[in-house]
Structures are given as C-alpha cells and as structure tokens.
Amino acid sequence: MQLTISSTQLLRALQDVSKAIPTKTSLQILENFLFVLKGDTLTITASDSELTLRTSVKVDSAAEEGSIAVPARHAIDLLKELPDQPVSIKTLSDSSFECSWISGNSVLPYFPAEDYPEIKGAGDDALTVVFPAEKLVEGIASTVYATADDEIRPAMNGIFFDIDTDSTTLVASDSHKLICYTTGEVKAPEKASFILHKRPASVLRAIIGKDVEKVEVKFDASNVVFTFGETTMICRLIVGKYPKYREVIPQNNSNVLRIDRALLLNTVRRVAVCANKASNHIKFDLKEGQIEISAQDLNFALAAYEKVSCDYSGEDLTIGFKSTFLTEILANLSCQTLVMKFADARRAALILPSEEEAESEKICGIIMPIMIA
C-alpha cells in the first residue's frame, strides 16, 4: 500500500469512526483501524464486533493498492500533533509501515487485513426506509435518555423503531417513564420494527453532521445499516419483543395542567434540593389556578415548597413523583408550554407539548406516580 493524503482529512476520518474502537477487547485486532485502498479511495473501518463504523475519503495520490490494519491509538495520537500537510503512508515489510510528512517520518506496526473479522450487514430480505437526518437525530435525542439498564429485559435497553405505512414512532421506556416521538415523514410499504441499543443510538446521533440531509436505514431481523454521505454504521439489533407501549398511554386523563415548561422545570429543581436523597420524592398539590410543589427530608429536617400560578382545570389533586424522572422529561422537551394530564394519584400522568405547539411531529411522555404519605 502506498498513498498520499491530507493529514487533517485523514485525522477527521479516523475520528469519525473511532467511536467504534473498543476500550477493552479479547480480540486485539479490533484495536486497529482497517485501511483498504482501491483506486483513489481509502476506506477506513472500526469495529467492536457489535458496532461498526466505516467511512471513505479521497486520497491525493495512490501508487499501490492494498489493505492493512493500523493501530488506532498510535495513528490518531500522531496525526493530532501534525499541522495540516500531506502525509504519505507506505508499507515497508510484512509488519510495518512508514508515515512520512514534510519534516520527518514515523514507522509503525501493522497487522494483516485478513485477520480483521468480516463485517456482515443486512441480508437480502432487509427492508429500507429513509429518514430525514434532522428527524432521526431529534427522535434519538428525544428518547434515548428514557432507555433502561435491564439485564433481565434487554429489549428495554434500546429505542424501539415502530415503522408503519403512515408514520414512524421511536419509543423508549425504563418502566418508570415512557417517551414516544412520532414523525409522519418516515413511512414504509409495510409495518416493520426493530430495537436499536442505546449505545449505537447515541453514537449515531453524535456523528450525523448538520450538512447531512437524509439517512438510509436498511434492516433485517439481526442487523441494521445506517448510510449517509460517505459514512456507514452497522450494528446488531436487540433481539426481543418490545412491550405494547400504546396500551399504557393514558387516553382519558381529565385533570389538565397547562404551564410554562421552563417555569415548572426550574421550580421542581429548586424544591427537589430538599427532597430525600434516596427517594427524590416531590409532591404536587393541584387546585384551580395554582400548583404547590413541595419536598421534605425528615432525616435531616429539610423541607421546601413553592406555589406557582398556572392554568389547571379538574378536581383538586395531590400526586407524587420522583423528581429526577420528572426533570429528565422536562429538560428534554423543547416546547415553551406543556400540558400534563392526570387521572388520579395512582395512575400515570401524560406529558406533552401544548396543542398550539404540536406540529407534524408529536412527542409525548408518561411518568408513573409514587405513593406519598
């Protein structure tokens, strides 16, 4: 292999895929980038066997095609220290290659490309849908924080993509809270679904640039492939059956609170300072035109409450929540005004943007109450 490429361009490509390099692995070859040079295109792959990232860059010149596995940490550390200039990569023997720049060079080991595991994508029976990049990033950001860490029910550790003929819904839940993000811009000729683990979901959200317009999503029962620009992400799907989430979304909660989201979020945060650190319990006392939020920790003689004017219609209601769950939901909504709908003190509360702000995308969440003394 012999090529010349901009150091900045190569570093950017390596950093784009480096999120798939494992921190610890029993398969040492995965601590390397796989370089494959064909024509004037260098394809770079990184993988931890569950998640694979691949990107392609044009080289300035290519004298000899080939493929090698390059130590990831050494390559990135070296390129970070170089100013933007052409660098030449040339294999010297069966085990080392030279990286040359204007004023010097470095000799590094490489490993046979044949030792790198074969990366399998989606099969011939795969279904393909296209996401507007903005909607995919927004959908992941709106839901990933609500995923669980559940060894017994691994399906809860990811985002459920529920794809239908007229819309697509992304769902995440840890059994205490549930978030749904729906967009009408993604459709499929037939109903389909898959569960994407939270880690690759977070990586995908981070690597989709603002200049990306569309993301092609191709998936079968085992794997999913996301393709955008010159980048491809391949990952294994969580195998399992996702709960019937639509059945737990309240439909007839008749007690309705309408309030400024930032005001409610900041109030909950202030009051929660005096909540018991183990339980994080806070209490809502709802009356017409007013909500009182309170918390106490009897062990340390701490207590706080705050009254806030609001638009509330319904029966007088006292209900408790875990403050950390509530603040997570409120902080991840982007609306100015939100609506909370309650049935009673024992059943889940529904949280959604004000009807005036709901457009073609719909975000809704539910939060389970806690028993209060």
- Indicate the low-confidence ranges by residue numbers: none
| Biggest sheet descriptor | 9 strands, antiparallel
Q: Give Rg in angstroms.
A: 26 Å
Give the mean pLDDT.
94
Question: What is the rounded distance between the termini?
Answer: 72 Å
Total of helices: 6
Number of strands: 27
Strand numbers in spatial order across the main sheet: 10-6-2-3-4-18-17-16-11
Name the beta content range.
35-45%
SS-derived structural category: alpha+beta
Helical content stands at 10-25%
Taken from the alpha-carbon principal axes, the silhouette is elongated
What would you say this structure looks like, in words?
The radius of gyration is 26 Å and the shape is elongated. Helix 1 crosses helix 2 (72-80), helix 3 (133-143) crosses helix 4 and helix 5 runs antiparallel to helix 6 (323-332). By secondary structure, the chain is of the alpha+beta class. It has helices spanning 7-17, 72-80, 133-143, 198-207, 261-272, 323-332; strands at 2-6, 32-38, 41-47, 51-58, 61-64, 66-71, 86-91, 96-101, 104-109, 111-112, 127-132, 158-163, 168-173, 177-183, 192-197, 214-219, 223-228, 231-236, 255-260, 281-287, 290-297, 302-309, 311-313, 317-322, 337-342, 349-353, 362-367.
